[in-house]
Amino acid sequence: MVNINTVYTTVLYILNKEQRGYVTPAEFNSLAVQVQNEIFQSYFPDGNQLNRFNQNNQQNDTEFFNMFKDSAYKLYPFERDTTFTYNTVNLGWTYQGTDTINKLGQIISTYNTTNPQFDSITQLASKSDFSQITRSKLTAPTTQYPICYTTQTTTLINPSLVQQLMIVVNPIPNSLTVNCVFQPNDPKWAFTVGTLGQYIYDSANSIQFELDTSEQISLITNILKYCGIIINDPTIIQTAAAEAQEATANEKS
């Protein structure tokens, strides 16, 4: 994790050193969420690009210098096997947690009323392909080769209705486990107000950046880029953007 107070104080120091203006905690928190999501989403296309280097034998596989492994490592904290719950009203499987699912990985359907028990890798298809496959006697799914599709459903989670991802599986398993990548929680720099009206960092109620510590420089430079937009200073935008671009080019070269 990256300490949010370290990032905020560094951003303020750089801005104040050049007397370029001030960014409030509310503004910083909004920028922090935006930049963390941008960096997180960049892992997927970057990983795809680095994987092509692997396939072409262009990747350095020396310990600590394999960039594809480093990129995958940054996703590990957000990846976990997740149990879905069967919704008897909508006839599908939904995730009951509060975190946001970003991507679905391997889907395992468990059929424990069979002998032997089957823990079957489930093929993910489009809804139209699902309909065609399940209607055909030749391609009909089995407990060893189940098939599924994803959709959205509305579920009552007191006190309101929420949209949820739902997985429809055929044949219906006894349980469903999915390897998911979750979104990082939104960072927040919390504070109390001092006797002089100053903002005092409140570590107990703050939410840290959930990205790897190696992302601290990227967080600072990209937040500074947006700060330049807020205080209308193109110099900050250009400088921060150039530093971020240089760091990215160095990583991918």
How does the SSE layout of this entry go?
Blueprint: H1 4-17, H2 25-55, H3 67-73, E1 79-87, E2 92-94, E3 101-111, E4 118-121, E5 123-124, H4 127-135, E6 147-157, E7 160-170, E8 175-182, E9 191-193, E10 199-201, H5 216-230, H6 234-252
Parallel strand pairs: 5-6
Antiparallel strand pairs: 1-2, 1-8, 2-7, 3-4, 3-8, 6-7, 9-10
Helix pairs in contact: 1-5, 2-3, 2-5, 5-6
Low-confidence stretches: none
Distance between the termini: 26 Å
Q: How would you sum up the global shape?
A: elongated
Total number of distinct structural domains: 2
Number of strands: 10
Strand order across the largest sheet? 4-3-8-1-2-7-6-5
Largest sheet: 8 strands, mixed
Structure characterization notes:
By secondary structure, the protein is an alpha+beta fold. The protein folds into two domains: 4-74 and 211-252, no CATH class; 81-182, no CATH class. 38% of the residues lie in helices and 26% in strands. It has six helices and ten strands; from the N terminus they run αααβββββαβββββαα. The strands form two sheets. It has an eight-stranded mixed β-sheet with strand order 4-3-8-1-2-7-6-5. A two-stranded antiparallel sheet has the order 9-10. It is elongated. The two termini are 26 Å apart. The mean pLDDT is 84.
Which features does this protein show?
alpha+beta, 2 domains, 6 helices, 38% helix
Write a concise synopsis of the structure shown:
The chain has 253 residues and is α+β, with helices and mostly antiparallel strands. The protein has helices at residues 4-17, 25-55, 67-73, 127-135, 216-230, 234-252, and strands at residues 79-87, 92-94, 101-111, 118-121, 123-124, 147-157, 160-170, 175-182, 191-193, 199-201. The strands form 2 sheets. It has an 8-stranded mixed sheet with strand order 4-3-8-1-2-7-6-5. It has a two-stranded antiparallel ribbon with strand order 9-10.
